[in-house]
Amino acid sequence: QQPVQSPQAVILREGEDAVINCSSSKALYSVHWYRQKHGEAPVFLMILLKGGEQKGHEKISASFNEKKQQSSLYLTASQLSYSGTYFCGTGVYNQGGKLIFGQGTELSVKP
Amino acid sequence: EAQVTQNPRYLITVTGKKLTVTCSQNMNHEYMSWYRQDPGLGLRQIYYSMNVEVTDKGDVPEGYKVSRKEKRNFPLILESPSPNQTSLYFCASSLFHRHNEQFFGPGTRLTVL
Question: Please, are residues B96 and B30 in contact by the beta-carbon 8 Å criterion?
């Protein structure tokens, strides 16, 4: 079952902040975040692992609430280059190498 | 240059005509995976491979086959394509397993008439 992302779409002005949420009904071991620009492949942003370990880019921050099976991606002081579709991917316990992505959140940053 | 390559990038075919989409990575990654992307549905995993000769189903494996005979290659096979397999397909790889950063190929846009 796919995780649910919210909001589905958001429009920002440059410099504004945004939060994208990802929620799963399954027990999660990991949450991944990727960004995809129109016509391009998804690009890695961050991985959050159960137990608190994080791997990712310095300018991106995210949280993982292991009890609620939820993750949030925080985009601060947004720039035009932040525009794109953001996907969360979830690694579920006892599902081998499966990675299940959400439906995406479309983010537009305007000047 | 470290990369994941896919061929072909674009393909238009007809129902029932077998096709193969190739995927190759030059990073010595153990984990490889195929996804399809459809509007409003995000990325859905078709098959994945944890290592050579080890493959397993993702969420939408019906109508697809894969093989992993060499570490670098992970072809996706559609033995009898149907119009509902019209989609954008991505291959991805990561160092050890799904909990590592995945590197995506450029995508293959497939149209089945």
Answer: yes
Nearest to A41 among B41, B56, B107 (CB): B107
| Cis before B83 (ω within 30) | no
- Judging contacts by C-beta atoms under 8 Å, the chain A residues touching residue B35 are 101
Strand partners, B65: B77
Question: Angle at CA A60, nearest 5°, toward B104 and A41?
Answer: 20
Residue type, A40: E
The CA distance from B4 to the nearest CA of chain A, in Å, is 11
Asked if residues B89 and B23 have their Cβ atoms less than 8 Å apart, the reply is no
Cis, peptide link before residue A3, omega less than 30° from 0: no
Chain A nearest C-alpha distance from B24 (Å)? 15
In tens, the pLDDT along B38-80 reads 998 999 999 999 999 999 999 999 999 999 999 999 999 999 9
Beta-sheet pairing, A9-13 with A105-110: parallel
What CA–CA distance (Å, rounded) separates B77 from B64? 6
C-alpha distances in angstroms, A84 versus A16, A38, A76, A78, A80?
Answer: 15, 7, 15, 12, 10
Q: Which of B98, B101, B102 to mutate to test the interface with A (most CBs of A within 10 A)?
A: B98
Per-residue pLDDT of chain A (111 residues; tens, 9 = 90+): 899 999 999 999 999 999 999 999 998 889 999 999 999 999 999 999 887 777 776 677 899 998 999 999 999 889 999 999 999 999 887 777 889 999 999 999 999
